[in-house]
Design goal:
One of its GO terms (molecular function) is N-acetylmuramoyl-L-alanine amidase activity. Its EC number is 3.5.1.28. It catalyses: Hydrolyzes the link between N-acetylmuramoyl residues and L-amino acid residues in certain cell-wall glycopeptides. Pfam families: CHAP, SH3_5. By secondary structure, this protein is an alpha+beta fold. It folds into three domains: 40 residues, no CATH class; 136 residues, endopeptidase fold (from Nostoc punctiforme); 82 residues, SH3 Domains (SH3 type barrels). The protein has seven helices and 14 strands. The longest helix has 15 residues.
């Protein structure tokens, strides 16, 4: 009787006929199957998570999920879980397994013959630190090493205040407590860790300005991190542009410089469809 209640059919006879047609043809079941299929088609893949981490590390940037103390190690897993699954994790790195489990995510504890997979988020103890450490796994482990992207591993003296950017790393299982297994499609799809080099950009003419929130962004001759660097802008600088678009995992703005040649700046990351995941400043 929802058809009547919703006002789709004001005539009682017409509404009854629609209900009869739905029941006789089992259209409600068909509709449910379509919704299920749509959900399956849009399920996040491990490759999406790994590609984001790889692009972040290649950019030399980091992500600051909570806006406190810069790009700490826990910001990366916390951002991933929030951006793709809408869940806010709490605590320091060492607390993330308990936090994830409390909110219904699968947690796997380190044990013999149990290995992390690409897109898992590992948590480890660190001698002399009450905070622990965490990061994202970017390749199925062979049981001996774990290939990762991690933040705040540069060892800078002010790491507890400002953190450190995302870096590629390979570690063994020393100190690893376990990992969060995200609800993703684990169909094996290898991600190349080299910067993407397509010369195609989906670009739209648009005038605007961008103000940097990060320490530095390089100016490039074409929209790829493999492109020639011809200059840079610093934190707080504002750049005027006449075009924007996406390519190679990043969102780009561009303008014609004093040399008469077009300049490109990567100002954030996108998914494969060009949807912005995060920006490294403010678009105006």
């Amino acid at each position: 009787h929802a058809i009547k209640d919703a006002g789709y059919a004001t005539a009682s006879g017409y509404a009854e006929l629609l209900i009869q047609l739905i029941e006789e043809n089992d259209l409600q079941k068909w509709d449910e199957e379509v919704l299920i299929n749509q959900k399956e088609e849009t399920m996040t893949t491990a490759k999406e998570i790994v590609q984001y981490c790889v692009d972040l590390a290649n950019s030399g940037m980091g992500v600051d999920k909570d806006g406190a103390y810069g790009t700490q190690c826990a910001d990366l897993p916390c951002f991933i879980v929030k951006n793709w699954f809408g869940i806010d994790l709490w605590g320091n790195a060492i607390d993330l397994l308990d936090s994830a489990k409390a909110q219904g995510l699968e947690v796997i504890y380190n044990a013999p013959d149990v290995n992390p997979k690409a897109s898992d988020l590992f948590v480890m103890e660190v001698a002399g630190s009450p905070y622990g450490h965490t990061g994202a796994v970017i390749e199925d482990s062979d049981g001996y090493t774990i290939k990762t992207v991690e933040q705040n591993i540069d060892g800078n003296w002010d790491s507890l205040q400002v953190g450190g950017p995302a870096r590629f790393n390979t570690r063994d299982f020393t100190g690893v407590v376990g990992w969060i297994r995200l609800p993703v499609d684990h169909t094996h799809q290898t991600v190349d860790t080299a910067p993407q080099t397509s010369d195609t950009i989906v670009e739209t003419p648009k005038s605007g300005s961008f103000t940097l929130d990060v320490a530095e962004i390089n100016i490039r001759r074409w929209p790829s991190l493999a492109s020639e660097v011809v200059g840079s802008y610093k934190q707080g600088d504002t750049v005027s542009f006449d075009s924007e678009g996406y390519a190679n995992g990043y969102y780009w703005i561009s303008y014609v410089g004093g040399s008469g040649k077009r300049n490109y700046l990567a100002i954030g990351q996108t998914d494969k469809d060009g949807n912005i995941i995060s920006l490294w400043g403010k678009l105006n």
